[in-house]
C-alpha cells in the first residue's frame, strides 16, 4: 500500500473527493455485521497556513466507553438523526461545539467495524478556517490537530498488539506528538491515507 505525501490541496479535494469516494473500497480488519450498532464520526480537515489538519479529541477519563482514548468527534446514531451524516454533525456540535454552517461535507468513507460492536461511517469534511471549537467538559478532555501529511505517511504507522478472544491480534497505531492513536481511530486514519493516495493532484 502506498500512501500519499504530500496530501492533496483543498481545491483538489473539492474537485475530486466526492467522485473518488463513490469508487473507493476498503477491507476493514473486523467484519461488518448487521447487528452492529450504527455510528458516525466526523473526519474534519481544517485548513491552516502550514497545511490541512485533522481534528481529533481525547476523551475524558471517566467515560464508560473508551475512556481517555483518542477519537474523532462522533457517536452512535440516534432515532432523531436524519442519517449518519446528521449523526456526525450532531455529535460534533455536542462534543466540540462545531456548527453545521462551518462544515462542507465531501462524502463518506467505507464503513469501519469495531470489536466493541459498532459499525462506523466516517464522514469526510472540510471545516471553515474560522470555525470556533469548544470542548464539552464532560466528554472531551482536549481538542487537538494532527497534520494530514503526517497521517498520510505510512512510515508513521506501527502495529499494536492487543489481547482478543484468548489470543493476540495486531491493529494499527499512530504515535504523534506524545499521543498514542490506536484502534478504530488509527484504522480510519490509515484508510483515509489510502484514499488520499488516489486523489489526482492536478
Automatic annotation (TrEMBL):
What CDD domains would the database entry show? NUDIX_CoAse_Nudt7
The protein's UniProt keywords, in alphabetical order, are: Hydrolase, Magnesium, Manganese, Metal-binding
Q: Which Pfam families does this chain map to?
A: NUDIX
- MF terms per GO, please? coenzyme A diphosphatase activity; metal ion binding
User: Which cofactor does this sequence's record say it needs?
Assistant: Mn(2+); Mg(2+)
Q: Is Disulfide bond tagged as a keyword?
A: no
Reply yes or no: does the keyword Zinc-finger apply. no
Sorted alphabetically, which InterPro entries does this protein's record hold?
CoAse, NUDIX_hydrolase-like_dom_sf, NUDIX_hydrolase_dom
Give the Nudix hydrolase domain ranges.
36-170
Q: Which PANTHER family match?
A: MITOCHONDRIAL COENZYME A DIPHOSPHATASE NUDT8, NUDIX HYDROLASE
Query: What protein does this entry describe?
Result: CoA pyrophosphatase
Q: Which organism is it from?
A: Candidatus Dactylopiibacterium carminicum
Amino acid at each position: 500500500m502506498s500512501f500519499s505525501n504530500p496530501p492533496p490541496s483543498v481545491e483538489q479535494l473539492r474537485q475530486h473527493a466526492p467522485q473518488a469516494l463513490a469508487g473507493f473500497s476498503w477491507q476493514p480488519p473486523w467484519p461488518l455485521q448487521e447487528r452492529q450498532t450504527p455510528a458516525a464520526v466526523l473526519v474534519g480537515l481544517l485548513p491552516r497556513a502550514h497545511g490541512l489538519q485533522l481534528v481529533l479529541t481525547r476523551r475524558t477519563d471517566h467515560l464508560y466507553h473508551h475512556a481517555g482514548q483518542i477519537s474523532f468527534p462522533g457517536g452512535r446514531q440516534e432515532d432523531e438523526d436524519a442519517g449518519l451524516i446528521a449523526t456526525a454533525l450532531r455529535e460534533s456540535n455536542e462534543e466540540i461545539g462545531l456548527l453545521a454552517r462551518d462544515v462542507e461535507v465531501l462524502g463518506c468513507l467505507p464503513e469501519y467495524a469495531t470489536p466493541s460492536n459498532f459499525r462506523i461511517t466516517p464522514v469526510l469534511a472540510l471545516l471553515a478556517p474560522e470555525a470556533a471549537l469548544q470542548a464539552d467538559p464532560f466528554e472531551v478532555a482536549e481538542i487537538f490537530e494532527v497534520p494530514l501529511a503526517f497521517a498520510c505517511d505510512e512510515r508513521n504507522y506501527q502495529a499494536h498488539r492487543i489481547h482478543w478472544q484468548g489470543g493476540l491480534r495486531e491493529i494499527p497505531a499512530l504515535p504523534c506528538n506524545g499521543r498514542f492513536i490506536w484502534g478504530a481511530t488509527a484504522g480510519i486514519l490509515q484508510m483515509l491515507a489510502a484514499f488520499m493516495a488516489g486523489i489526482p493532484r492536478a
